[in-house]
Design brief:
Largest sheet: 2 strands, antiparallel
Strand order of the largest sheet: 1-2
Number of strands: 2
Oligomer: single chain
Number of helices: 9
Helix content: 55-70%
Radius of gyration: 16 Å
């Protein structure tokens, strides 16, 4: 298991790891499994940040990508729920990835957002980032991930659940209990909005 002292402590640290991984891969593919190894013990937080940031970016408009990322995050959240410390992905997911150069470009483009997030979010009310609240966050993330496939039918409609997941990821990474509580509120709004949209569309179809 990776020494927690060497784990990323901020979004900037996460992007540094991502950029380094991309630089090492070069023209080869940087695999998701390698990214998990690079992020260390606290990889739950980083991946709940990275995937939503990708979804919110123009890249998130690629058909099928939000659903694929939601699948991976749901699998990670399930492991978080059961307290697994060493993240695991099946081979067909662990071997997926981007060319190293593309990963470096993505990391560089995310840098301004990372600086803003690191400036405003930090270790407040850390008691709300431990114990049962972690399981609540895991359940909420799984529920949020289930709203993504139907919302993908509309361009960028998955942004709200992704923002809620990003908030959970950031709260886990920097131990920000206030943000954890805000994320819980966002998740209720996102799930409620997603269900409302789905039933409204179903009613119109009927």
């Amino acid at each position: 298991m990776t020494d927690q002292k060497n784990d990323p402590q901020s979004v900037g640290d996460v992007l540094d790891r991502l950029k380094q991984l991309g630089e090492e891969a070069g023209d080869e593919k940087a695999k998701l499994g390698d990214a998990i190894q690079a992020m260390g013990h606290r990889a739950y937080g980083p991946f709940f940040i990275l995937f939503p940031l990708i979804d919110i970016s123009p890249v998130g408009g690629i058909p099928g990508l939000p659903t694929a990322m939601a699948l991976v995050m749901a699998l990670l959240a399930l492991q978080l729920l059961f307290g697994r410390e060493d993240l695991w992905l099946p081979g067909f997911l662990a071997n997926r990835g981007l060319k190293g150069k593309k990963l470096v470009t993505v990391a560089n483009k995310m840098r301004p957002v990372a600086k803003w997030l690191d400036r405003w979010f930090h270790d407040r009310m850390p008691a709300f980032t431990k114990g049962p609240i972690i399981k609540v966050a895991a359940v909420a993330i799984i529920a949020l991930c289930t709203t993504v496939p139907p919302l993908e039918l509309l361009p960028f409609a998955s942004t709200l659940p992704m923002v809620a997941i990003l908030s959970f990821g950031l709260a886990l990474l920097v131990r920000d209990g206030l943000l954890m509580l805000i994320a819980c509120g966002l998740s209720v709004a996102a799930i409620g909005g997603g269900l409302g949209w789905f039933f409204n569309r179903s009613g119109q179809g009927g």
